Amino acid sequence: MKRNILKMTTLGFGLMTIFSLSSCDDDEMMVMESPMEKTITFENIVTLKDFVESGSFQGTNTPVIMPGESVSFKFIAGKAQSLMFATMYGASKDWFFASKQPGIKLFDANGNAITGDVSSVVLLWDNGTKDNTTGAAQNNPIAQVPNVNASQLVKLNLSYDIVKSEFTLTIANTSGGTANETPLSPGVWAVSNYNGAQLLNSAPFFTPNALSNPEISDIAQMGSITKMVTKLNANTGIMTGLSPALVVVYSGNQNPIYQAGQLDSGNGLKEVSQTGNVMKLQTTLKAMSNVKGVYIAGNAPLAPGSKMMTSFSFTPGDKIAYVTMFGFSNDWFYANEQSIDAGTTGDLTSKTTLFDSGTGVNQYPGAGNRQSLFGGTPQAESIVISKVGTQYPVPAVQNVLKVTVN
């Protein structure tokens, strides 16, 4: 009897021990599986640049453009952007040709490209740094040269490639045989960056009725473009805004937002990459069985120097993915290329890649008239999702976007 009681007692302790351990494991599991929360932050750290494109031009046979000669160059621009150029009136002490500020208007009120003869916008300016007779140094403000019709001395003609949003400007020296016959020096040109509301530089190269600067003075006095080219190079570059970012928490091994090497699935990525609208993608993701939650950071385009963030909930084993539009493009988006555990903390920028959704024909970033920045709609295409290549001088990811989780 005592032996049986001992057996039962021992069995009872064993069951209690098992139950106790089991209960402990269940409690720990419940704690582990309780939702946790983190915050993901997206920062637009791109450097602002005055000009989206710039360059120089010179004669074909010699750098100087003589009467009867012409020169052409290509540039890309969207609605609201304009072209500024400058070249020395060679037969002077300090005069130069340039257009009105902020430059040559390229599109009419209806958004149609302006083509043909645009010579009427050319003006002849006195740099104010040399006496027009003796060449002695002066310190007068830049002013228009009176009684000279610049459009009779220099002819400008624009042509336009609508697919590329690319213009060609031809500058012809037509001063031969006039009272103001002159050679033209090598020159410079630039297209001001546009941020969706205004040009970043509305008075490129010089400011009328103000004192000159060393760069335009070298052009006006010597026909030397070296200083201006250096300044333009330092202030020219692609920049961008970012769309509100979508963040998805999911289970499994497949990123639910996109699959590189495949065609766009129609789940809403096209809308994000072309217009920055995340609503369709948000709705599609919420209906997926492996999606735990969908979150939106920001509610408006993210300008350089700004940040947006959102908190998200997850349980161990979950993963996160995110997407935001490269705003100054036709159909590009930033997304994590590598799989990311939802519990990860720290800087995720190195896991981020710039992709082309393959749904719209590309144009020069920040200068393509079919980009949503200019109220356009991309020309449709259907190619697989891929990394953005080196066709355009796009800043590296880490120079545009910073992604962190805390």
The portion of residues assigned to helices is 10-25%
Largest sheet: 7 strands, antiparallel
Low-confidence stretches: 1-31
Provide the β-strand percentage band.
25-35%
The rounded Rg comes to: 31 Å
Quick rundown:
This protein has 406 residues and is an alpha+beta fold. It has two domains: 51-234, no CATH class; 239-405, Immunoglobulin-like (Sandwich), CATH 2.60.40. The protein is 16% helix and 29% strand.
Name some characteristics of this structure.
single chain, 406 residues, alpha+beta, Immunoglobulin-like, 2 domains, seven-stranded antiparallel β-sheet, 5 helices, 22 strands, Spondin_N
Secondary structure elements and pairings:
Blueprint: H1 2-33, E1 36-44, E2 51-57, E3 70-76, E4 82-88, E5 95-99, E6 104-105, E7 116-117, E8 122-126, E9 143-144, E10 154-161, E11 166-173, E12 187-192, H2 214-222, H3 226-234, E13 245-250, H4 269-275, H5 279-286, E14 291-297, E15 307-314, E16 319-325, E17 332-336, E18 340-341, E19 346-347, E20 352-356, E21 386-387, E22 401-405
Helix pairs in contact: 2-3
Structure description:
By secondary structure, the chain is of the alpha+beta class. The chain folds into 2 domains: 51-234, no CATH class; 239-405, Immunoglobulin-like (Sandwich). Helix content is 16%, strand content 29%. It is built from 5 helices and 22 strands. The chain has helices at 2-33, 214-222, 226-234, 269-275, 279-286, and strands at residues 36-44, 51-57, 70-76, 82-88, 95-99, 104-105, 116-117, 122-126, 143-144, 154-161, 166-173, 187-192, 245-250, 291-297, 307-314, 319-325, 332-336, 340-341, 346-347, 352-356, 386-387, 401-405. The strands form 4 sheets. Strands 2, 4, 5, 6, 8, 9 and 12 form a 7-stranded antiparallel sheet that branches. Strands 13, 14, 16, 17, 18, 20 and 21 form a 7-stranded antiparallel sheet that branches. A 4-stranded antiparallel sheet has the order 15-1-22-19, with no helix packed on it. Strand 10 (154-161) and strand 11 form a beta hairpin. The longest helix is centred in the N-terminal third of the chain and has 32 residues, at 2-33. The chain is elongated and about 85 Å long. The relative contact order is 0.18. Residues 1-31 have low confidence and may be disordered.
